[in-house]
Amino acid sequence: MSLTDIRAAYQSRENVITDEKLSKIKEPIQLLDEWFELAKNHPNILEPHAVCLATATKNGLPSARFVLCKSHSKDGFTVFTHYTSRKGQDLEENPNCALTYYWEPFNRSIRIEGIAEKLPLSVADDYFKKRPYDSKIGALCSDQSKPIRSRNTLMEKEIELKEKYPDTTKVPRPPQWGGYLIKPHTMEFWQGQTDRIHDRIRFRKLKDGEAIDETISHMVEDGWYWERLAP
Questions:
Q1: For tag attachment on the chain, is the N or C end more exposed, with fewer CB atoms within 10 Å?
Q2: Which of 23, 31, 33, 29 is nearest to 218 (CA)?
Q3: pLDDT at 13
């Protein structure tokens, strides 16, 4: 199947990310918040906080999957999962990871690279209590990423757990379920353009002792620099 003829029209030039616009951005989370607010209020974007989380083993074998980012701030990006899942095992071996947002109606994407750290279990407890009842039961009945005999295995476990924990406030957090804070060192903002001369703006933290060209790398706040990349 050839896909070479598929070519969508993107944004008009009025949405170009100019250097003048960038001069008003103090750090990358500010720009993410601006874009996220638009995505959150768009009727065709059901889960604006969905991100593709890419991980790798200690030997560099990659894998990627979509998860929901439950919070973001200057401190980092929060996701929850089973520590025993494939992504959890990857992060245990190799905390380097990446997140990608994609909001198709705006032809916008944000790539985030950083280091994952486990959150305190108290944070996982607080969030788990806020989950819907079925989501709590689902987390408890799943040994995530492990092979199972059939879907009936899960359905039978679900029935068993609902009989055991009829009260939503009494469902315990699985001991192997918790959160990660992904602390970014690089964030790239992509704005698609119909002529394929896309905007790519990368914010990054400098490496120790790194020399820069100040005509290309522009310092903003909190140790961040931004650079424009060729599309």
A1: N
A2: 23
A3: 65
